[in-house]
Structure formats: structure tokens, C-alpha cells
Design a protein that fits this description.
The chain folds into 2 domains: 57 residues, no CATH class; 65 residues, no CATH class. 77% of the residues lie in helices and 0% in strands. 13% of the residues are buried. It has 8 helices and no strands. It starts with a helix and ends with a helix.
């Protein structure tokens, strides 16, 4: 039984994947990333107050949620959630670089409860939003001191 599975896997690995299939995979992935960026821009600007889920993105690009997830994973090696979380961290860091915006306001803008935002941010960046902000402004201060010296 095990030899059969290995044989089938070898045959599948040696098969040429049709170019049309690969092109569609990349089209779906590109559409997802475009819609993700658009949605996150809408969230940050206040035009939308709830985060989309994979099924919402799938509906926008007219594919089944499972197909969307499998296609993105196959094309990139990462799940849709990876890209979502990566973009959220980028946006969070950018917002944290604005000293006049309280962390709790950033959390709410990104549809998080402040304590959950702190947990999310720390999980993906290794430091709390407050620690990130302090480190960012310390490095900026050091850069200015070095430039003036």
C-alpha cells in the first residue's frame, strides 16, 4: 500500500502542470492581495468597521473559500491569514510611528479591543505596541543625535 502512494506521488510530481492552471492560480492570488489592500485601506480610513474573513474575500473574487485558501497556499506557500496578519502588522507599525495617536485608538481603528491588539501585535512582532513605539522613537532620537554630531 505504501509503495502505491509513493508511486502515485512520483507520477503527480513528474506531471507538467498546465500553464493555464498556473496563470489562474496567480490571478486569484493577485486578486486576493488587491482586495486585501483595498479592504485594509477602507478599515484604516473608517469606511468599514468590520474585518473581512476569507469567505468575504472569496465572495468578492467569485471563488469558494476553500478554493481561495488552497490556491493561495499552493501559489505562495502561505495561507491567506499569513498575508492578512503581515499587512496588519505593517499598518500597525506605521500607525504606531505617529506619537499623537493613542495605542487604544489604533487598536479600535483596526477593529481590535486594546488588550487583544497588544496580544496580536506581540505575537507577530515580538514586542508590545508600547515597546515598539518606544524603540522606534529612541532609534529616531539616536539617529538625529548622530547626524548633528
Amino acid at each position: 500500500m505504501c509503495e502505491c502512494v509513493i508511486f502515485v506521488q512520483t507520477i503527480v510530481a513528474d506531471m507538467k502542470v498546465p500553464q493555464k492552471f498556473l496563470a489562474r492560480q496567480h490571478e486569484i492570488t493577485a486578486d486576493f492581495l488587491k482586495e486585501l489592500d483595498k479592504h485594509l485601506d477602507d478599515v484604516v480610513s473608517g469606511r468599514v468597521s468590520e474585518m473581512f474573513e476569507v469567505r468575504d474575500f472569496a465572495e468578492l473574487i467569485h471563488v469558494h473559500p476553500t478554493h481561495l485558501s488552497n490556491t493561495i497556499k499552493s501559489a505562495t506557500g502561505h495561507s491567506p491569514c499569513y498575508f492578512f496578519e503581515e499587512r496588519l502588522i505593517e499598518i500597525s507599525k506605521s500607525m504606531l510611528q505617529q506619537l499623537n495617536v493613542p495605542i487604544s485608538e489604533i487598536a479600535r481603528t483596526l477593529t481590535y479591543d486594546p488588550s487583544n491588539f497588544t496580544k496580536f501585535f506581540k505575537h507577530f512582532s515580538g514586542q508590545t505596541p508600547k515597546q515598539y513605539r518606544e524603540a522606534y522613537f529612541q532609534s529616531l532620537s539616536r539617529s538625529k543625535e548622530e547626524a548633528s554630531a
